[in-house]
């Protein structure tokens, strides 16, 4: 997840990785929005995106004409065409469709924060998030990223990836990304943890992402043995009954896997026979 704490978005913080082009600037502007700031003024867009105000104004007008942004008084919000385009990302869209009702039930049963995440480069990308206290809400957001090595979802996705070793080398090429004093800082220990996660098909973290909280993550499969997403629950560190919580999480994951596999097969049949 991108860290959303009222500061500039992760996209702005990592602006050096975004091309300094018209397309790159437009991407930075669109990425400035999050679930806490769905309406932003011109000056906010400039500060969050790192794009100069005159360029933001010009590009915002073009994005409005394309339906990617909408005017809301003297501010802007994400336009419908962004949502429409996102629905064309079939796998992510399908996971979101079948996963959201399950997350609703998980939150109701556990009163934790439920996340649905996928691997995106060397980060954990969050497709859905429900529930949570204010502090958890501030840390994570839908459509954002967090380091693979700090979150339960990230560690699960990293361990279950077919290119786990290579991916871990890429993540650790420069330094350990750390969110708290408890975030992993030993390469050998982290590699051993990857083996344990693969064996148990379960990843955990305790105050490695956010002080006062712990998380558990289990895989969602493609119908075979490949993990395509992670389902996680975050609860206060004082929470008891972790065994029951993990069992509930596994049952929920199995339900999403079944639904996703069935709908993916139906979609594939439709494409073959209705084209």
From TrEMBL:
The record's annotation in Pfam families points to: HTH_IclR, IclR_C
**Entry-linked InterPro entries:** GAF-like_dom_sf (IPR029016), HTH_MetabolicPath_Reg (IPR050707), Tscrpt_reg_IclR_C (IPR014757), Tscrpt_reg_IclR_N (IPR005471), WH-like_DNA-bd_sf (IPR036388), WH_DNA-bd_sf (IPR036390)
List, for all copies, the residue spans of the domain called IclR-ED. Answer: 81-262
Q: Which UniProt keywords apply?
A: DNA-binding, Transcription, Transcription regulation
**Any GO MF annotation of the entry:** DNA binding
**Which ranges carry the HTH iclR-type domain?**
20-80
**Family annotation (PANTHER family):** HELIX-TURN-HELIX TRANSCRIPTIONAL REGULATOR, ICLR FAMILY, HTH-TYPE TRANSCRIPTIONAL REPRESSOR ALLR
Query: What protein name is recorded for this chain?
Result: DNA-binding IclR family transcriptional regulator
What species was this sequence derived from?
Answer: Mycolicibacterium frederiksbergense
């Amino acid at each position: 997840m991108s860290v959303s704490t009222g500061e500039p978005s992760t996209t702005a913080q990592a602006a050096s990785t975004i091309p300094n082009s018209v397309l790159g600037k437009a991407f930075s502007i669109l990425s400035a929005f999050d679930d806490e700031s769905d309406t932003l003024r011109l000056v906010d867009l400039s500060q969050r995106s790192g794009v100069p105000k005159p360029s933001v104004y010009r590009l915002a007008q073009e994005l409005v004409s394309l339906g990617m942004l909408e005017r809301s008084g003297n501010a802007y919000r994400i336009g419908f065409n962004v949502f429409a385009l996102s629905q064309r990302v079939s796998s992510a869209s399908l996971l979101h469709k079948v996963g959201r009702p399950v997350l609703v039930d998980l939150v109701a049963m556990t009163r934790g924060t439920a996340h649905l995440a996928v691997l995106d480069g060397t980060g954990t990308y969050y497709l859905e998030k429900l529930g949570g206290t204010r502090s958890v809400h501030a840390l994570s957001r839908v459509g954002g990223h967090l380091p693979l090595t700090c979150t339960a979802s990230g560690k699960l996705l990293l361990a279950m990836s077919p290119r786990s070793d290579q991916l871990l080398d890429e993540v650790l090429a420069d330094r350990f990304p750390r969110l708290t004093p408890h975030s992993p800082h030993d390469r050998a220990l982290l590699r051993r943890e990857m083996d344990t996660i693969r064996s148990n098909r379960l990843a955990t973290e305790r105050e490695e992402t956010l002080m006062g909280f712990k998380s558990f993550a289990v895989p969602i499969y493609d119908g075979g043995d490949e993990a395509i997403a992670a389902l996680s629950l975050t609860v206060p560190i004082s929470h008891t009954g972790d065994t029951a919580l993990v069992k509930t999480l596994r049952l929920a994951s199995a339900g999403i896997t079944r639904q996703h596999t069935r709908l993916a097969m139906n979609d594939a049949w439709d494409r073959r026979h209705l084209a």
